[in-house]
Design brief:
This protein has one domain. About 75% of the residues lie in helices and about 5% in strands. The protein is built from six helices and two strands, in the order βααααααβ. Helix 1 runs antiparallel to helix 2 and helix 1 runs antiparallel to helix 6.
Length: about 150
């Protein structure tokens, strides 16, 4: 049994985009309270690595849900939460490395901490649990199934 491509893509887009929007909204509230809206816009809207992260996380979660067997909700949160975090760490680590940062791993973990404080990571974990309940599962061709969508 496997998750359909349509279901996996829908799941991944929901988790990635909604959690990213929650992180941006929380950071916007913090920035508005401190008067740093210019910095917020340059980080969340103008930074090209945000788009790279959105794409990489969506592809990673889609492949994880499509290629893995269906899991209980608590395992989906552990596996997909780890995939989401790994995509975040890799994207921001590469971004720091490309920018010439001497410690790209530190920059990547700083971004993970920021994602935790802006509720982006907790939102992703909760969305994984919520959205995994409505994944469409079909029999795949490798296991003798008839429907491989």
């Amino acid at each position: 049994m496997t998750v359909t491509w349509r279901g996996a893509v829908s799941y991944a887009l929901t988790v990635v985009v909604v959690s990213w929007l929650i992180g941006a909204a929380v950071d916007l509230a913090w920035s508005a309270a401190s008067g740093g809206l210019g910095m917020w816009a340059s980080f969340w809207l103008k930074e090209p690595w945000q788009g790279v992260f959105l794409g990489a996380a969506t592809v990673s979660l889609t492949l994880a849900r499509r290629l893995m067997d269906p899991l209980p909700r608590w395992r989906v949160m552990l596996v997909d939460g780890s995939v989401y975090l790994a995509a975040l760490l890799v994207c921001w680590g590469v971004a720091a490395w490309v920018a010439g940062d001497g410690a790209p791993v530190d920059a990547a973990f700083f971004m993970a901490t920021l994602a935790l404080f802006t509720l982006q990571l907790p939102a992703a974990w909760l969305l994984c649990v919520w959205r995994s309940g409505s994944l469409e599962v079909v029999l795949d061709e490798l296991h003798g199934g008839l429907a491989a969508r």
